[in-house]
Design goal:
It is built from 4 helices and 4 strands, in the order βαββαβαα. By secondary structure, it is of the alpha/beta class.
């Protein structure tokens, strides 16, 4: 089995920068996304991503075809990035086969994780973005 390929969504942010740095230092193939300017860590591949644009996440996942996806984005008070964007990431990851508890990975092939549904870190099921309400 080859080296793990990691995609860090939000890789140019505070937490993302450290994750990208550690992943590249460990020798793994690392891809990361940015919104306004790419990070400066050598050895990482950078992809511009706007979480507010439906479908853009699917394009990045298909291009990168990672073994694992980590979302560390923060839009601070921008609900379209912080909440809706995170749900878009989770839903796109599920469509591409990530989140399958069998241990299989999608590698960008839709349908390989039949029945897989994205969950939050607390394990609760996510609802489509259209059903969310702000407080």
């Amino acid at each position: 089995m080859g080296a793990m390929k990691l995609l860090v969504i939000g890789g140019s942010g505070f937490l993302g920068t450290e994750l990208v740095r550690q992943a590249t230092a460990a020798g793994g193939e690392t891809a990361a996304t940015y919104h306004s300017r790419p990070g400066s860590i050598p050895g990482a591949s950078w992809y511009q991503l706007d979480l507010r644009a439906p479908g853009h996440i699917d394009e990045v996942l298909a291009t990168v075809a990672p073994n694992a996806v980590i979302n560390v984005t923060s839009g601070e008070s921008d609900w379209a990035v912080t909440a809706d964007g995170s749900i878009r990431v989770a839903m796109a990851a599920a469509r591409h086969g990530y989140g399958d508890s069998s241990g299989r990975k999608g590698r960008g092939r839709p349908g390989t994780a039949s029945g897989a549904r994205p969950t939050t870190c607390a394990g609760s099921r996510l609802r489509p973005a259209g059903r969310l309400r702000g407080r």
